[in-house]
Amino acid sequence: MPAFAHISDLHFGSEDPSTTRALIAELNRERLDLVILSGDLTLAARSGEYADARRFIDALKAPTIAVPGNHDITPFNLGERFLMPYRRWHRYVSAEIEPSWFGPEAAVVGLNTARRMRLRLNWSHGSLSRRQIVTLPARFAPAEANAFRIVVAHHPFIAEDTEDLSDRPRVLVKRAKAALQAFAAEGVDLVTAGHLHRTYAAAFDTPPATSAVITQEVAQSHRVTVIQAGTALSARTRGEPNSFNRIEIDGDTMEVHTVAWRGKRWERTDEPLVTIRR
């Protein structure tokens, strides 16, 4: 049974060493097919923090896929922030900021929602460009026909307290509604994100309409499930324990379980956070 770990907001620079060692041991014990890192590997994009993140990744037995978060762009060196925002990411983590991973049961595509700046006071919020949205079909082109489709981003596309998801959901990603429609059109099953240090699941299943960014009209609704991960290592837990999500695929069913740190061990919930059935 294929299994993936979705971890987010490691925030090296504020991590607890004992929890970090326990997380590495847990992820290696699980015999995972892939570890998904949905951004904020560092606290302030310092070289030492990136070096710690690199050592963490190198200690894992499973392959990894990672996208940047807003904390992974330096807030101190403005020249670097504006001219070479991913210089340290490229040096320590990956040559890519939007990597992909393809297996027989799942196709995983990364989208970078972090920005060096935005035309608003809070630069920590995320954004997607129109180009990122329209090129999504090409990104998923290598996927197996029956593979579950997963998008990895840092910022949430649906806020936790949104009640009516069919009507302009409150979000932290610019162009989120267009992106969710494109995800549905492309048959994306799951979107993994972090940023809020909160664990929750939500769904978007309004039938997508034809628009400038969707070239194929879709007559049938497709549900896109969004899952958020709490922080794996940071002390800023927002009232939750440190945690990550475990994604399991069994035939035509995909389940997500939360795995929480209980001080001495990582504990997987019996009840799934969400179940997706084909």
Automatic annotation (TrEMBL):
Which superkingdom, per the lineage? Answer: Bacteria
User: Domain named Calcineurin-like phosphoesterase: which ranges?
Assistant: 4-198
Q: Does the keyword Iron apply?
A: yes
A molecular function GO annotation = hydrolase activity
- What keywords sit in the KW lines? Hydrolase, Iron, Metal-binding
**Gene3D superfamilies listed in its UniProt record:** 3.60.21.10
The signal peptide, as residue positions, is none
State the family it belongs to: Belongs to the cyclic nucleotide phosphodiesterase class-III family.
Name this polypeptide is given: Metallophosphoesterase
